[in-house]
Amino acid sequence: MGCSSCGTNGGGGCSSGGCSSGGCNRHDVYDWFSNLPLSFNENFNMVEVSFKNGSRKGFYRNADLFDFSKGELIVVEAAQGYDIGEMNLQGELVKLQMKKKKVSEREDTIRNIIRIADQADIDLLLDCRNKEKEIMVRARAIARTLKLEMKIGDVEFQGDGKKLTIYYTADDRVDFRELVKVYAREFKVKIEMRQIGSRQEAARIGGIGSCGRELCCSTWLNDFKSVSTNAIRYQNLAINTEKLSGLCGRLKCCLNFELDTYNDALKNFPKHSDKIATDEGIAYLKKTEILKQLLWYEYEDKRGVFYKLSVEDAKELLWMNKNNQKPQSLENYALVEEVKDESKHDDLVGQISLATLEEKDRKKRNKKHHSKERQPYSKPQQKASASQTQAQKADENNAPPQQTGNKQGAQQHHKKHHHKKPLHKPNNNNQSDKKDS
Q1: pLDDT band at 374 (very low <50, low <70, confident <90, very high)
Q2: What pLDDT, on a 0 to 100 scale, did the predictor assign at position 37?
Q3: 3-state secondary structure of 366
Q4: What ranges in 310-349 are assigned the alpha helix state H?
Q5: What's the half-sphere exposure (Cβ side, CA atoms, 13 Å) at 25?
Q6: Burial (Cβ within 10 Å: 0-12, 13-18, ≥19) of residue 107
Q7: DSSP 34-103
Q8: Please, which residues bridge with residue 90 across strands?
Q9: Which domains does the chain have, with CATH numbers?
Q10: Could you tell me how far CA 173 lies from the centroid of its own chain?
Q11: pTM as predicted
């Protein structure tokens, strides 16, 4: 993904520590010979220039022998006007890149470098880049109103702001003559429509693949080779289009990366190894592990029991069947996996008693239970005791002198239940006292 999504605008790179050259690893190139003054490069004045953070590159001639460093913005010639790009490579590596892409330095189509970009050129370029997103949204809306079967993936302004290139994808041929007129009237610049493939579109936009890394096509892959379904079959992969397709909707390019390794490993496997005849019956091939050089067989009568054979043993058994010979059973040839005894490492019996652990857990639960019961009732008891002490003090101040014996207990009982007794109760008590006297 380009540096337009970074948090920093300088050459220090992204906030996540990604790029250091301002390109976010989009077709980034490291110049290994930048610090080596090679004498045979003095007469070689070709320079590789990248545009829009590496989404487009081209070769230009440094006729005036300008002295600039990697990452510096320069002004180059265009078909009409000029363009502004970033110096990507110079010297011997440019010669290797031109040889790889079959571009001759003697071609007349190679344009010249005009000058090093000044601040006015940089401000104009940034202004054009800021307008591209809004223009792309507007261009998609116009194409939708004209009911054209096309998808606009990206737009790019020329450095001088006088030309707009619109990249689109379409399954069939599209007549966009009316569309170009509407675009020219709407955006007031020269319009160029350029059709690209779905993989080129993914390379220009960028993104994160299912592996968690940036797309190969947007970082380093330039040659898009066709990926056939034979690559899936040779690698014994399940035919699942959702998992095997990339962001472009086509088969992933990485399916070809290990294809040669699998083809070399398949050369050791015997041909026509679908079944092996034995005295117990016929065993059918169920699974092959190509890189491990293993074959798995299963008897038709013994479902669920698999026999793992090496490639050499399978060749020997097939040679016996070819000579009208049958082995007794596949058990004599099957590979047995060693089962590690992990009980020695995990035997903790006698070291820790479960009873002690349960007792500790029970004590912890009881403590938590008692603490929860005591907390809500502690404060009301304190308040009630304080109120009782105040009431007792008030009663003691207003009460008559204390008496000893049963009369004292009767008086206390009378005070406690005084509010419950009727009004004529004290008269009866007085009469009873007189009779006793």
Answers
A1: low
A2: 60
A3: helix
A4: 311-322, 343-346
A5: 17
A6: exposed
A7: TT---GGGTT--EEEEEETTTTEEEEEE-TT-----TT-EEEEE-SSSEEEEEEEEESHHHHHHHHHTT-
A8: 47
A9: 27-117 (no CATH), 125-205 (3.30.300), 225-265 (no CATH), 268-332 (no CATH)
A10: 36
A11: 0.65
